[in-house]
Each structure stands twice: as C-alpha cells, then as structure tokens.
Amino acid sequence: MNPSMENTNQSQRTLKNTENALDALPDEVKREMKETLEDHAIHTDRMINNQPQHTPNLRKVNLPTSGCSVPLFPGLSPPLQHLLRERTREGALPLCLAPPALLQRVQEFPLISVGSPEDWAELALRIVGSGMGGFCSGSDLLVINGFFTTPKPDGSQRFIVDARRANLFFLPPPNPNLPRPDHIANARFPPGATVRAALCDLTHHCDQLSLLHPQTRCLIRHFGLPEVPRHLLPPEVQARFPIGPIHVALHSVPQGWAWGVTLAQDHHRHLLLRLPRRTQLLHTSPGATCHLRPGVVFVLVCIDDVLFLGLSDGTLLWAIRQHRSLLRESGLQESPSKAVPPTTTARICGIALDTNLLRPRWATLASLVRDTRALLRASRTTTREVEALLGRWVWILLLNRPLLSIPQAVCGFTADRRTPPTWLRALHPAVRREFRLLVTFLPFVRAHLSLPPFHRLVATDASTWGQGVSIAAQPLRSGPHLPHPFPPPPLCVELPNLLHLRLADWTHIVSSRWAIPPEHTNVLEMRALLTAVRWVTSSPLSNGTVLTVHCDSQAVVGAVTTGRSRSRQLNRLPRRLTSLLLAANPRLRVVWTPTALNPADEPSRKQDWRGRHSPSPGGGFTCHP
Stretch 474-484: mean pLDDT, rounded? Predict the structure, then answer.
C-alpha cells in the first residue's frame, strides 16, 4: 500500500475515534469545550488584528554610513567595565552562561528571516560595507540568530536582530535606569515659570557602538546571522571561505539583544556626565528630586534621545552646543532632522509637554482605551495579555502616582501563577471594575510642573496610643525663582532639610487616642497621614499646590510613592488618600524623616493633651475635634 494512503487512512480512523469520544461526553462538558474553542478563536483574531500590517523590504533597510565607529568598552561606567573585565577560566565573560547546557534550547526558537535570498545577500554586503559586521564561517559562531524589519516614520525600515537564541547565553541584564514620566513630574520648577524644552537624537546609536575591543570581542560569536548563499557573494569572499557555509557576524551592539539597551543607555549617560555642572541629569534613583533654577538645564537621557529642560532659550541653546561638542569628541553622530529647537511643547517616551502640563499623548490614550475596551468585551483572556495592558497603564499613571492604588485586583490577577500565562482565563468582576475605573479617571492623568508649594509644613506620626499631626508656617516666602521655600542642596539631591525642621515653630493640631481596634504600626502611620491630608484639603488654599508631608515610616512612604503595598491591610488606605487628592487637587510629596527629628512624634505619644494651638489667622483652616 502507498505510504501516503496509509497515513491518510490512519488519520481518518483517529478523527473518527475522536468524534465518537466527544459524542460520549456529557452535554455540559461539550458546551464548555465549545465556549473554550470560541474564546480561543476570538483571542486569536484579536491578536492578529492588533499586529501591525508590515511588508518587509530589505532594500529599504536604513544602515549607517560608518558603523562601529565608537568603541563600546571605554565609554561605559566603571561598574560595567569591571563586569566585563572579570573573566572566567574558560575565557567567557561573567555575563555569559555555560554554552553546553543551553545549546539544546536554541532549537526551541525558529530562525526568522525575511526577504528573498537575493535581497538578503545584498543586505549582507551592505552590512559588511558599513562596518557593522563581517563575513565568517559557521564554525566561528556559537549562535545563529534571525532578523526582521520594522517600519520607520520616514518610510525606511529598521533592522532588528531576533536575538532570542543569543539571550539564552546571557544572564539577565541590570536595570538600565531608563527615564520615567515621574522623573519629570517630581522635579521642582519655579512657581509660575514657563518650562522650555529641546530635543536631540542620535543617529544609529547602537550601530555605532563597536564590540571589537579586546574586552568585548568574545561577544561577537553570539551574534551570527543566517547563511548567505555562496553563489550570490563576490569571488573574493568565496575565496576567503572555500569550505562550509558563509555567515555574517555583527560587530556592533545588535538591536534586540537583552543587554543592548543597558549598554547603550549607560554609554550615553556616562558620556553626558562630562557636561558642565550647569547641566544636571535628572536623578533616576527612588525618591530623588532635582531643583531647576535660572541658568540650570535638566538633561533626560533615553538611549539615543536627549531631552533638555530649562527656563530660557539661551540656556538651552548653550546646553545643546555643549552636547554636540561631546558627540564630536566621542565620534557619535546626531540626527539633524529629528532635532527640536527650544519650545514649550515636546514629545518623549509617549509623554507630551504642553506649556508646563505633562500629559500622555492623545494617540497613546486612544490606543490604550481601545485595547482596554476590547479586553473587557472578551469573556476570557490570558495573563500575558493583561500584563501587557497593565504595563501600559502603569506607564502613564506615573504622572499621578496616587492613581496607582486603583489596579489592585489587576495586579493580583497577573501575580497568580497557578495557571500558565498563555492559557485563557475568565476575568474577575473586580478586574473589570478596576479597568473601567482607570478609563474613567483618565482626565486626572496629568502633572503640572510649576505648582506653588503649600504655605504650611506638615508632619505626621503614629504610635500604639494615638496619632499626631503638626504644622508650621513656611520660614521663607517662595519667590519667582525659588522652587521650594528652602534653598536646595548644592548637589540637587532630595534630602530632608534637617535644619528647618529644628528651627520651625511647630504647632500640634492633632493628638488623639485611637478609637479603633489595635492594628499594625504601618497601618496606623497611614491613618495619621490620612488625617493630615484630610485636614489640609479642608482649606481651599490647598488647591493646585505641592503638599510636603514629613513621615518617619518608610513603609508609608513606599506605599504612597508606588500607590500600593504588599500588605493587604495597608492596601485599603491608599485609595482613600487618592480620593482626597483627586477631590482637592493638591500634589502630595511624602518625605521620610528620622523619628528623632519628627515634630509629630511628641503629640502621637502624649496621653494627656491640654489643648490645641490655633494656626495663625488668615490660614483658612478649621481645627476639627
């Protein structure tokens, strides 16, 4: 019998047995299986429709004129240089894993390549001619990766390496310290001043970073590209490799490598540290805040994009000239077509700056709302799809961090690992309700950069006995060029100003015993903060101001900053705080203060309080019992 006919008969028998087995199932099981198949079809259609329609054309791939022109290793920060210097006995870098244990897993990822063999051979010659790579034999490579292209706004296409195979051989990269929207929103700007912005962009940043340095040369064997047909190559290339397949090995940092973003961001950021002191990089460490003063320029680095923030066009133009001189010295090239001169509007990282108002871009909001409604219409979805949508929401909610207290059930849904992330699951009603709330509160996702400070200092504390809230008048008036009532530290690092805490005339407005059952200390500290915010928001003067509250609980500072906590008891209270802040419109900043310097420590432990001291007249406050 013909083998093909035998296989056909066997397939028909298997299908018939499957149909008989399905007919024997109960009606409820068959109905559930039918609903599952329909959900799978809806999920597949939604994923296909969300995929951008793109026709690859290798002839339109945009490549640099001179790649690998800047050595990567000398421009890195000392910690990354130390990581690359430390070699193991086998000669591999410490960020690489042992190859023998991973060679079998490489075959799990298909080798993706687009275009015809003729187009790929032409592109390979262009890659080698630009200096981004070189021809080599297959025995010289450890991993062969695929590639694909993505469209660019100018009509050309970007060359991306499918480095999933190569990423198996590397440990997870460290945090690249990319800028976030809250880094700009938390910076202090003079009240009433107009913030000016300018943008610069590097051309082919990763393609110019060379791996040919002795400390990074061993990485090249991980970045091989598919085989190039021998008969389509010039005779001199065929003569160099008479036996075996011919491949292309990238000599630059590939886009798609897990470590590529970390190395490119660190290289550019370390270069900008050589700028004069008048240009200050926005801090990317938690709790750090910069103070913008006349003559000072903030610099925000996002891989190859640079955002300059200042108060005058002259200062920004001076900073741009200093940046361009550094680029010429290092060998990097700037893209003149993407440069934006000083203006009041700017776009970076999906965030728009419009005359002191920081908000998400309209296109970002439209796509986010559309995808959220599509997810809510589906009866089932996967954990991975919810994680991707939640990440997009968290990115824009960083502009108004108290709103991060809303998606608590969504975070619990994504953290549940009892079901594989690619399996379809029914959305819990609480998850649906929180996504609808996020869409409802979209008008509050914004940040004003030049808000005046609140005219009172506030400090809170709590103990097992009771809570205490203290206030003090601002010792200095905020002028047009003073972003905060106290002079900023010389290095513009956010630190508690211990001097003004001791010199200020504090008044205890709350010193009351708890009327609730005993709770954890962190929960009591959050309740004391709620009392202080409720007292402040009772004044109309708190509308549109920056309220700074001193607290000695790091758990409360972290919960308010991130919008949520790992403690379920503490997670209930940030939502109450968010409702107060959205209603009264102050911007809350909680600063950690040592307990010994916290003025509210005494009233929180005082068991016999004789009476409250009234604030100064004209404050517009009412002391509640």
Answer: 43
